[in-house]
Amino acid sequence: MGRLDNKTAIVTGGAMGQGAEIARAYVAEGARVVIADVAKEQGQSLADELGGAAHFAHHDVSDAGSWASVVDDANARFGPVDVLANNAGILRFGDIERMPAEEVELLWRVNQLGCFLGMQAVTRTMRKNGGGSIINASSVEGLAGMPSCTAYAATKWAIRGMTKCAAMELGPKGIRVNSVHPGMIDTPMTRVHGGDAAMEYGASKVPLRRVGTPGDIAPVYVFLASDESSYINGAEIAVDGGVTSTHAFGA
Length: 251
Ligand SMILES: NC(=O)c1ccc[n+]([C@@H]2O[C@H](COP(=O)([O-])OP(=O)(O)OC[C@H]3O[C@@H](n4cnc5c(N)ncnc54)[C@H](O)[C@@H]3O)[C@@H](O)[C@H]2O)c1
What we know:
CATH architecture: 3-Layer(aba) Sandwich
CATH class: Alpha Beta
Distance between the termini: 43 Å
Structural class: alpha/beta
Order of helices and strands: EHEHEHEHEHEHHHE
Low-confidence stretches: none
Number of helices: 8
Bound molecules: nicotinamide-adenine-dinucleotide
Strand order of the largest sheet: 3-2-1-4-5-6-7
Largest sheet: 7 strands, parallel
Radius of gyration: 17 Å
CATH superfamily: NAD(P)-binding Rossmann-like Domain
Helix content: 40-55%
């Protein structure tokens, strides 16, 4: 018996990093998964690895027009969508004085608008099906501040806020909405910003003295997708090795 038997899930940003591990964990627990991502090669190769329980859909989360076809495809292929792991995201650092407006807007489109459109797209099918679970990827940057991270953090605080509003609005329809707040996780997103040296520096700042792995994150997504979390709604769950436990003077 899997913890997600008979559930259909969409995992955005499922081709790489945390999303790929979430997709693997969902299939291992008995779910059928649509991996929705802009990265065709990696997404298709993961779907091939996972077999008949997985399908890759080329999908840009910031494109309002393509959300309906992803949800329709998932419904037709695997049955009504029960779970949305709204995980896709991009990271750009930039000082306030220098960051181009286009980069700020791109972050907003993918991270914030993409998350909103995802919730909007699955609501009807979840409501008709009697409920569901939406898991939004925020960040420790949605819980606290970091220099040169204003534009990214804005989207992650927005996701935290949208999660609360959506939990209030969709709760009466049986749809739970929660946010996950990863700390520094070793994925392609963070690797490009300094490789091993960045990981070592990051680890030195964490009470557990290591950065996280996608394997630390995926079980939380499994729990929030499963009926084990049936009374958890509007929660924000930090998976950060304790890094947001400090007021910084203690670091
Ligand atoms: N890695 C970290 O340290 C960290 C920390 C906190 C929060 N997060 C958040 O966790 C989520 C997953 O991050 P990750 O570390 O796995 O990143 P990653 O870069 O390793 O993977 C992100 C995935 O999202 C996909 N993607 C990017 N833009 C997309 C779009 N417009 N439409 C669909 N898919 C798109 C990418 O192709 C990739 O497969 C993101 O929302 C990120 O902001 C990451």
